[in-house]
Amino acid sequence: MRRSNGFTLGRRVALLGVLAAGLPAAQACGPLVAGLSPYGRLLYRDAQGREVGIDADVIQALAEHSGCTLDSQVISRNGVAAGMARGSVALSPSTIASAERAALGELWPYARSPMVVLLPRDQAQRWPQREAFDRDPTLRLVTVRGHRHGEDLDAWVQALRAQGRTTEVGDVPAALRALRTGRAQAFISVAVAVGPDMDDLAAMDWDRSGGVVGHLWVGHHVPEAERERLRLALQAMLADGTVDRIFQRHLGATLARRTRLGRSARGA
Description:
Elements: E1 8-13, E2 32-36, E3 44-45, E4 51-52, H1 54-66, E5 70-74, H2 77-86, E6 91-95, H3 99-104, E7 105-113, E8 115-120, H4 130-135, E9 141-144, H5 151-162, E10 166-169, H6 172-180, E11 186-190, E12 201-204, E13 212-219, H7 224-239, H8 242-251, H9 253-257, H10 263-266
Parallel strand pairs: 2-5, 9-10, 9-11
Antiparallel strand pairs: 1-5, 3-4, 6-13, 7-13, 8-11, 8-12
């Protein structure tokens, strides 16, 4: 199994379903590297050792709708940004927009998610509000290098960092280990990523900005014709219900409804 800043998914998604997106079948597209990062229900390893989850399904559906060969690789979020900068990573799902990311590629919205702050469940009652957490200078927030959390929570991270109260790690599994071993007492997560393996953690609604929008991030270095092919494929996935079905399969109908974008946000 090849490695690229992490473990590869061990598969290349085939060219399928080109006509479903109304795209020309004869035109070659790819191979393009899709960078996916382990993160709860977005991407995790199942009992058979396969990397599965919402992001894996989105990339597979994108390949089927676009006819592009997409080589899915598990890469840290910081590694994805570095790969975008040097042209080795072409696209990445579940990306929160930022000026730095927009400078490297286009950002196409396809889902939204509330943001939550995860605390050890047996201690959560000690800090029912964010203000209670802020008042205790011994408490620390663990963050993942390269992650964004939306305007409100990013400002909170900066405030805690200025007080020397943050611990930075390389990926989400490391952040969860820090939380469970007591090196930190809080971690910010997109709500859609919180799964059954996090039952020991309490999800606190401390975000004051209404959540974030997840984008497909496609590098400027990807040829224009291939970018357009991917963009049309994503639009088709939103229009035909593919994106909805992926979220319903992993989240259930109630939470999946909260991931839907309004028509204006979709760019339709």
